[in-house]
């Protein structure tokens, strides 16, 4: 939801909050980091073929059949490869973990991801989400849910009908949490 260099690194994430939001213990997150590093190898990032086996072990993913799981893994990989490098960093992988945990309210997962992936500049907007950042987030969510390209502009107009160029964090998260297009697993 932004370039890799400008976002908060996983070492700076609130690990207690991440554990709470992801449904994983800190030990499980540490284990995922070890597994991630082993799968990623020397370059420190996951290719698609390295991601699928790790994704298949995440809580709740096993409910899908193998074919559906791989299809979903590919879509999710593309969604979280924000810089289009065909790789996932550990930070991007953590986003996957949070978003696919359907045992937690969508509102909490989306809100957490928005806060964790915002740049320093975005964090200092006093709880506001700019049109530019809102479009970035909406594009990724549309990718995740399989919506067509350009749909993010229509959603933004619904969130910001007065065309202010920004909305509150709460307005944004509430829209995503309640909109029927984003209420599919």
Automatic annotation (TrEMBL):
Pfam families: EF-hand_6 (PF13405)
SMART domains: EFh
Key words, A-Z: Calcium
Chain ranges of the EF-hand domain: 68-103
Gene Ontology MF, one: calcium ion binding
InterPro entries, alphabetized: EF-hand-dom_pair, EF_Hand_1_Ca_BS, EF_hand_dom
Domain of life from the UniProt record: Eukaryota
Protein's name in the database: EF-hand domain-containing protein
Organism: Adineta ricciae (Rotifer)
